[in-house]
Design goal:
The complex is a heterodimer of chains A (about 80) and B (about 150).
Chain A: E1 2-6, H1 8-14, E2 18-21, E3 28-29, H2 30-40, H3 42-47, E4 55-58, E5 61-63, E6 68-69, E7 74-78
Parallel strand pairs in A: 1-7
Antiparallel strand pairs in A: 1-2, 3-6, 4-5, 4-7
Chain B: E1 3-7, H1 13-21, E2 29-36, E3 40-41, E4 44-53, H2 57-72, E5 75-83, E6 85-87, E7 92-100, H3 103-120, E8 123-129, E9 132-135, H4 140-147
Parallel strand pairs in B: 1-5
Antiparallel strand pairs in B: 2-7, 3-4, 4-6, 4-8, 5-7, 8-9
Helix pairs in contact in B: 2-3, 3-4
The chains are: A alpha+beta (about 80), B alpha+beta (about 150).
Chain lengths: ~80, ~150
C-alpha cells in the first residue's frame, strides 16, 4: 500500500485529501501511478490531464514522473507552490 | 545552524533578527527579507488570505534550502519563519535572516533562500478578493528567479 495526499486546489477539485492504494506487482513509478489514477476516475482524468500543471513529492521530497514508488511510500500531489 | 519555523502566530522581526546575532562577535553582516500580504493581486482587491502547507515536508524543504545556502556561501547562520493559516493585508508572511562575516554572502544567500522557497517549499495561498475566493497562481517569473541560481 502507498499513501496518497492531495493539497490545495488539487485536493478541492478531487474532493479527496488522502487515500491508501495498493500498488500492482512489479516496478512502479510516479508515471505509472498517475496513469492508473487517470484511468480510474473522471475527476482524476481531468485533474491530471495533459497541460494541467501539478507537482509531486515522494516521501516528502520533490520528485518527478520517473521517480520510483514502493509500498509504504507517501506520495503527495499538489499545484505549483505559491508561498513566500 | 539553520533555524526553520512554520507557525500560525506572527513574529517580531526585530527580536528574531537580534536573536540571530546575539552573543556573537564574528557577524559582520545580517541580511533579511520580510514578505507581507498585499491588498491587491492580479487586478483584484484582496481582503484576506489563507496559507495551506504540507506539514512535515514544509519544514524539511526549508531546512534543505538553508543547507544548500550554507554549502554555497560562507554563512554563519540562517533563519526562516513562515506563517500559515488566516492572514490579512499588511500581515507578515515570511522572514528570512542570514548572517555572515561580509555582506556579499548575506545578500546573495537571502535572495537565494527566497527564490528557492518560492518554487520548492510546499505552501499554497488562497485569497479572498472582490472577484471571489481563488487559489493564487504560480508565476513563471518565480521559476526564472530560481533558475538563475543553477550553475
Amino acid at each position: 500500500m502507498v499513501t496518497l495526499l492531495y493539497f490545495a486546489g488539487l485536493r478541492e477539485s478531487l474532493g479527496c485529501s488522502r487515500e491508501e492504494l495498493a500498488l500492482p506487482s512489479g516496478n512502479s513509478t510516479v508515471s505509472s501511478l498517475v496513469e492508473r489514477l487517470r484511468s480510474r476516475d473522471p475527476r482524476w482524468t481531468q485533474a491530471f490531464a495533459p497541460g494541467n500543471s501539478w507537482r509531486v513529492a515522494v516521501n516528502q521530497r520533490m520528485a518527478d514522473l520517473a521517480t520510483p514508488v514502493k509500498p509504504g511510500d507517501e506520495i503527495a500531489f499538489f499545484p505549483p507552490v505559491t508561498g513566500g | 545552524m539553520p533555524t526553520v519555523r512554520v507557525q500560525e502566530a506572527d513574529f517580531d522581526t526585530g527580536r528574531e533578527l537580534d536573536a540571530l546575532t546575539r552573543g556573537r562577535r564574528d557577524v559582520g553582516a545580517l541580511a533579511s527579507f520580510v514578505g507581507l500580504v498585499r491588498d491587491a493581486n492580479d487586478g483584484a482587491a484582496v481582503s484576506a488570505m489563507t496559507l495551506e502547507h504540507y506539514p512535515g515536508m514544509t519544514e524539511k524543504a526549508l531546512e534543505e534550502i538553508c543547507a544548500q545556502a550554507h554549502s554555497r556561501w560562507d554563512l554563519i547562520d540562517t533563519l526562516v519563519i513562515h506563517r500559515v493559516g488566516a492572514l490579512k493585508p499588511g500581515d507578515r508572511i515570511v522572514l528570512v535572516g542570514v548572517s555572515s562575516a561580509h555582506r556579499g554572502e548575506a545578500f546573495a544567500a537571502c535572495e537565494f533562500i527566497m527564490d528557492y522557497l518560492k518554487t520548492r517549499a510546499p505552501f499554497w495561498k488562497r485569497e479572498d478578493t472582490t472577484h471571489g475566493s481563488r487559489w493564487v497562481e504560480a508565476r513563471a517569473s518565480d521559476d526564472t528567479a530560481a533558475a538563475k541560481w543553477k550553475s
